[in-house]
Structure formats: structure tokens, C-alpha cells
Design goal:
Layout lengths: L1 E4 L12 E3 L2 H8 L5 E3 L5 H14 L4 H12 L3 E5 L6 E6 L1 H10 L10 E2 L4 E3 L1 E10 L2 E11 L1
Parallel strand pairs: 4-9
Antiparallel strand pairs: 1-2, 1-3, 5-7, 6-8, 8-9
GO cellular component, one term: ribonucleoprotein complex
Keywords: Ribonucleoprotein, Ribosomal protein, RNA-binding, rRNA-binding
Pfam families: Ribosomal_L9_C, Ribosomal_L9_N
């Protein structure tokens, strides 16, 4: 099935790309979550608009991505969350929580869709998080989750 991506999807493409994927992947995952729309002849007009919006939010060069990477890796991120007695969290830490914690810690503004968690963060302590700034540049960030 041909679709137009409206958001960046790891391993598939960036916003505005027209890609061909399996029908079930498009119907059950990409379209319901708003990551893509079905391709139509009229939808080609949307591609130009999506690409313009992507250029506004996109980090243009590798040098710029490396500068932001240096800022991120120098930022200490602490996240205060509610937890139980054994150190387990009530819920989990989301990429949106991490993006807002980076901003409040004085770091650069990071889109929540660029924060990649290896596995859900459900315990107190230090955790490693990857932030994909550019297709070739990713920053490793230490996040310390503490009890509120």
C-alpha cells in the first residue's frame, strides 16, 4: 500500500516521503496513530505542504546536529516522578516527559518524537536515552529518575 508519511518513522522515512509498505502495517499502525495518510492523486498536494513544515523543524546540517549533540550530552537531566516503596514508578517515563525535562534543565528544545527509549523506564535510577537529531547523528543522554 502506498502511503504518505506525516511524521518521521524510524527505519521507514521522514515526513513527506511517499513509501510502499505492507497493507496491515499501514492500516493497523501507521494510519491510526497519525504517522501516515493514504496516498491519493490529490494527496500529492499535501506532500509539498508536509515537506515545507518538515524543513522548518528539521536540523539542516550535520554540524548543527553535532552542536546540539554536544549541548545535550553536557546537560544533566533529573526527572522527579511518583514511585512506590520498592522504587517502581506509577506508570512510566515517556519521551514527552524527557523532552520537557531537557528543556527545563536548560538544554536545547528537542522534539519528543526524536527521543528513543530502548525499553520503558519504570524504575528509579540512572537510565540511558538516545536522541536522534539527524539520520547520521544521535546523542546519548543520561536521565536520572528520582522520587518526587
Amino acid at each position: 500500500m502506498k502511503i504518505i508519511l506525516t511524521h518521521e518513522v524510524s527505519g521507514l522515512g521522514a515526513a513527506g516521503d511517499v513509501v510502499d509498505v505492507k497493507d496491515g502495517y499501514a492500516r493497523n499502525y501507521l494510519v491510526p496513530r497519525g504517522f501516515a495518510i493514504r496516498w491519493t492523486k490529490g494527496g500529492e498536494k499535501d506532500v509539498a505542504q508536509i515537506r515545507r513544515a518538515r524543513k522548518i523543524h528539521e536540523i539542516a546540517t550535520i554540524e548543527q546536529a553535532n552542536e546540539i549533540k554536544a549541548q545535550l550530552e553536557g546537560t544533566k537531566v533529573r526527572l522527579a516522578v511518583r514511585s512506590g516503596d520498592a522504587g517502581r514508578l506509577f506508570g512510566s517515563v515517556t519521551p514527552a516527559d524527557i523532552a520537557s525535562a531537557i528543556k527545563s534543565a536548560g538544554g536545547p528544545d528537542v522534539d519528543k518524537r526524536r527521543v528513543e527509549l530502548g525499553s520503558p523506564i519504570k524504575t528509579l535510577g540512572s537510565h540511558q536515552v538516545s536522541v536522534r537529531l539527524h539520520p547520521e547523528v544521535a546523542a546519548k543522554l543520561g536521565v536520572e529518575v528520582v522520587a518526587a
